[in-house]
Design a protein that fits this description.
The chain is α+β, with helices and mostly antiparallel strands and 133 residues long. It is 37% helix and 31% strand. The protein has one domain: Heat Shock Protein 90, CATH 3.30.565.10. The protein contains four helices and five strands. It has a five-stranded antiparallel β-sheet, covered by helices on one side. The protein is globular and about 40 Å long.
Length: 133
């Protein structure tokens, strides 16, 4: 298993596919079950897509995290886009600015064990999720 940080640029819609593949590869390396692989890859896909579409592009970093006997994947999505003016509203199911189902942020939160978001209007957004094995 590689223990180094992996960074994936998120500029084009095609980068979302590359991000999904990288997250799946790392989840397999850690021995995630198929269900847990699917959950973390789905969350990563939603957040990567948001980074490209709403954040104007950014970067995803993948880190292996160890806490006592458990291991997991920490994924950070960072952009320098317009930011999210009302995080509480953006986290509600059904809220959308892009014509989708409005399940991206709230869905990613449900698929993760840990979820944090910081955003400053005009400066960008950073989201960190962890899925434990």
């Amino acid at each position: 298993m590689r223990s180094t940080r992996e960074a994936i640029p998120l500029t084009l819609s095609e980068d979302v596919v590359i991000a999904r593949q990288a997250v799946r590869r790392r989840a397999i390396e850690l021995g995630f079950s198929l269900v847990d692989q699917t959950k973390v890859v789905t969350a990563a896909s939603e957040l990567a897509r948001n980074t490209v579409q709403h954040g104007g592009g950014g970067i995803m970093t993948i880190d292996v995290v160890l806490e006592g006997p458990r291991s997991g994947l920490s994924l950070t999505f960072a952009d320098n886009g317009p930011g999210i003016p009302d995080i509480e509203r953006a986290m509600q199911d059904g809220y959308t600015t892009g014509g989708g189902l409005g399940l991206g942020l709230s869905g990613a939160r449900r698929l993760s064990h840990n979820f944090s978001i910081t955003s400053t209007p005009g400066q960008g957004t950073t989201i960190v999720i962890i899925r434990w094995k």
